[in-house]
């Protein structure tokens, strides 16, 4: 295993562990890392790799939330009905390399801000009721962006739902996990409709194994060992630095 793959495998394991502990897939950080000039990867490799890792990490979490009855279909369908086809459309849309990296850099910058300002908890008596049309629009917009840059979308949806006081932390995490899963699969389908990317298995398989193990550990340790607000703010700083580095190289 060469040094670059070893670095990526170690980093992906830690990213999956940390993100799974707060209900995310880690797509934003996978993208931020893969997009660094050191690794010399193209968008054709970066995009599907990040989404495949997302799917591996959030599948288990989404199943757990479903078994715990935290996913209520009459509540979550408005976020999914437009996001799934629009994530597919975003996956189909092929961007020039510089355009992709600029959009990615801006996306990561916004994600870092949203993560930083996300409140820790919303009191039950202060929650607001959101309308179905607004939830459809919100899900569709984030879904399209998810497919375009290959980010699951939970890192946007979760902070926004907290700010809108949509529900408690557990219910929002459940929706975010499902949202990330379906949009990652839809975005991948869109990308694969344009041809299967040429990704070497010796590059991809270690990363998928790393996030699989890290995600399982993180999902089990998160609620007991980690303070979610500190994890999210540390992650926000790391994503911010990565976004600045990406934009500096491509603007």
Automatic annotation (TrEMBL):
The protein's topology relative to the membrane is: Multi-pass membrane protein
Q: Which PANTHER family match?
A: MEMBRANE TRANSPORTER PROTEIN MJ0441-RELATED, MEMBRANE TRANSPORTER PROTEIN-RELATED
For this UniProt record, the keywords arranged alphabetically read as follows: Cell membrane, Membrane, Transmembrane, Transmembrane helix
- Say if the entry is tagged with keyword Isomerase: no
Q: Where are the transmembrane segments?
A: 6-33, 45-64, 76-93, 100-117, 137-160, 172-193, 199-218
The domain of life for this entry's organism is: Bacteria
Task: Give the originating organism.
Answer: Dawidia soli
Task: Tell me a GO cellular component.
Answer: plasma membrane
Identify this protein by name: Probable membrane transporter protein
Q: Which family does it belong to?
A: Belongs to the 4-toluene sulfonate uptake permease (TSUP) (TC 2.A.102) family.
Q: Where in the cell is it found?
A: Cell membrane; Membrane
